[in-house]
Amino acid sequence: MTQPAVEARALRKEYGNRVAVSDVDLTVHPGDVFGYLGPNGAGKTTSLRMMLGLIQPTAGSVRLFGRDPQDDPVRALDGVAGFVEDPTFYPYLSGRANLELLSALDGGVDRERIVEVLEIVELWSRAADRVRGYSHGMRQRLGIAAALLRRPKLLLLDEPTTGLDPGGMRDMRELVRALAGEGITVLLSSHLMVEVEALCNRLAVIQTGRIRFEGGLDELLGRSDSRYRLETTDQARALEVCRAAAGVHDLAQENGQIRFAGDRADAASLSIELGRSGVGIHALVPEGASLEDLFFQLTEGGAE
Amino acid sequence: MTLRAYRWELRKLVSQKRTFLGLGAVLVIPLVFVFAIAVNPPREEGGQFFFRYVAETGWAVPLILLVFSSIWFFPLVTALVAGDIVAAEDQNRTLKTILTRSTTRTSLFVAKVLAAFSYALLALLVFGLTATVAGGLVSGFGNLPTFTSVISPHRAAVLVAGSFAVYAVPILAIAAIGLLLSTLSKNSAGAVVGTLMVSLTMQLTRIIPGLDGDGVQRLMLVRQLNAWQGLFRDPIDWSPIVHAFWVSAIYGAVALVVAWLHFIRRDVLV
Fold first, then answer.
1. What stretches of A36-184 show up as alpha helix (H) in DSSP?
2. How far is the C-alpha of B123 from the C-alpha of B131, rounded, in Å?
3. How far is Cα of residue A270 from the mean position of the Cα atoms in its chain?
4. Which of B62, B87, B88, B259 could form a disulfide with B182 if both were Cys (CB 3.0 to 4.6 A apart)?
5. Share of chain B above pLDDT 90, in %
6. Residue A266 and residue A132 share a domain
7. Do A152 and A120 contact (CB within 8 A), yes or no?
8. Worst-scoring range by mean pLDDT, A122-126, A260-264, B122-126?
9. What span, in angstroms and rounded, lies between the C-alpha atoms of B63 and B163?
10. Which residue among B1, B16, B101 places its CB closest to the CB of A92?
11. Residue A228's pLDDT band (boundaries 50, 70, 90)?
């Protein structure tokens, strides 16, 4: 059986009295594009730092392809690359010299590969300039280039689109999608639901240091009923029909519109009931952004 | 891997202004000093021993500069790089960048130690060569009076070189203290000033009752910066030199071990 790319078990980090990460269990399988979703300050970066061997867990363990970065960081990080918070470089060296340095620290300068990765992230034309003069977006891209230098099997990316303009965000997502398409396993932290929904097949939701959900995107979406908006010719009558209908719940009326929760079958039966009762339907619309709703349900469900 | 990391530490030093600030100073100070004695030669009586002869023989110039620079100048030049070399990674937030590659923390630490030592030795070499050449050009390369006799230019050249070699030993220990403060404080300016303060405080103990005794002073690192003077006794007095070696080795080793243990175990949070 293949080893999980990332396997965190009961991972915990305390800073003095503050618990930054509490009993995090997380499994990323090879080939996953795994979203690590949570609001700012939830413990995503701290988790990633432990995965990269930058900080020691207070308790628990993390393994990358079966190896513990605390025991032997160099071997555990073999084939693993990424960054936490923002990628950082020596400001007084050029982008290219920074990559040469990192390539040397990886075991020997591979000039061909440096050119390749600079072209992948479209920084070749600015490679000779000092990093001091790079924009935030260019540094993010240089960070990806630095990670790709190692030809990684696993990429750990901490909010790679944060601080980018809309064009930069789109490019970065396309890059991540392209890399995943080449078979690289990606663990991507984000506080943006749309990003995770667009890129990831599996995800974990973390809040105040605890995992609230871990599983497939479909699983999360199917976990709760969808919400619908209903507009009819006779809202008062429609409300009565809804109350009587099987499976329809969380009924609410606002601004002359009826909102309810239920699955697809419930909504279909309701439409027939409304017709039988002589109520015409103007609109019966599933409300979108369901992952966002779920995210708020998960993360605002009260701190335990 | 350590060698590769060391080469890159050197390349990083070459790319930073502060490196040249120190190297510039060790180049300029001897020139200014020689210019001053050419314009206004010192009178023979009084003053530091070698100072009386700087107008007579260029060999006295590097030696008197060693005496003067021990108080704060050379510790500062050394601290400028040693105090910065780890802390700069914290300030540039680049530790996470280099610690997630295929080089161990120990290798990176050793590379930094070697780079800080290399810089200190280079600075000392530039200082000595500039002082000797400039001194010789102004005052000639004549016989050098020592504490006990007068020696030939040939012997003076060997002993001046030997003096700088002996002087380098406690300087490397000061570099190790700079590295320790750099590692612990994570603040470049703090570590540079701190190293200088350690050096000045040790000098100050000479006038503090209870600490001014020879038993305590013998163990002060800064005192070892004068050990080279044993070379100018006849016969050569090796005992202060051997003593300086041991005292410096103990200061240096303790500082490096503590710094290393901290570096390999610390949480990298920036």
1. 44-51, 73-76, 95-105, 111-120, 136-148, 166-181
2. 12
3. 36
4. B87
5. 83
6. no
7. no
8. A260-264
9. 8
10. B16
11. confident
Residue A191 and residue A47 share a domain: yes
Domain ends where: A164, A197, A221? Answer: A221
Contact B38, B138 (CB under 8 A): yes
What is the tens place of the pLDDT at every residue in B76-130?
Answer: 999 999 999 999 999 999 999 999 999 999 999 999 999 999 999 999 999 999 9
Q: Are residues A276 and A184 in the same domain?
A: no
Query: What's the mean pLDDT when you consider all of chain A?
Result: 89
- Tell me the residue range of the domain where A48 lies: 6-221
DSSP A59-98: EEEEEETTB-TTT-HHHHTTTEEEESSS----TTSBHHHH
Instruction: Write the CATH number for A244.
Output: 3.30.70.980
Nearest to A65 by CA among A47, A78, A83: A78
pTM of the model: 0.87
Assigned domain for A300 exists: no
Partner A, chain B 170-189, Cβ-Cβ below 8 Å:
none
The CB density around residue A221, as the number of other CB atoms within 10 Å, is: 13
pLDDT value, residue A304: 40
> Does some domain include residue A66?
yes
Q: Which of B2, B17, B102 would best serve as a mutation to test chain A binding (most A beta carbons within 10 A)?
A: B102
- Chain segment B129-158, per-residue pLDDT in tens: 999 999 999 999 999 988 888 999 999 999
Report residue B49 as tokens: 């021993």
CB-based contact B92 A90, cutoff 8 Å: yes
Average pLDDT over residues B52-73: 91
Residue A294 lies inside a defined structural domain of this protein: no
The CATH number given to whatever domain includes residue A54 is: 3.40.50.300
Do A136 and A33 lie in one domain? The reply is yes
In a domain, A61, yes or no: yes
| A271 and A246 fall within a common domain | yes
Q: Which residues of A touch chain B, with CB atoms under 8 Å apart?
A: 49, 52-56, 73-74, 77-78, 81-84, 87-93, 97, 101-102, 104-108, 146, 150
Same domain, A100 and A124: yes
Contacts of A78 in chain B (CB under 8 A): 102
Q: Are residues A64 and A197 in the same domain?
A: yes
Q: Residue B181 is encoded by which pair of tokens?
A: 């403060």
Domain end (from A221, A246, A261): A221
Q: Do A82 and A197 have their domain in common? A: yes
In the chain, the amino acid numbered A115 is V
**pLDDT number for residue A301:** 59
Q: In angstroms, what separates the C-alpha of B174 from chain A's closest C-alpha?
A: 26
Q: What is the pLDDT of residues A173-192, one digit of tens each?
A: 999 999 999 999 999 999 88
Within 8 A of B269 by CB-CB distance, chain A residues are 49, 54-55
- Residues of B whose CB is below 8 A from A73: 99, 104-105
Is B91 touching A (CB cutoff 8 A)? no
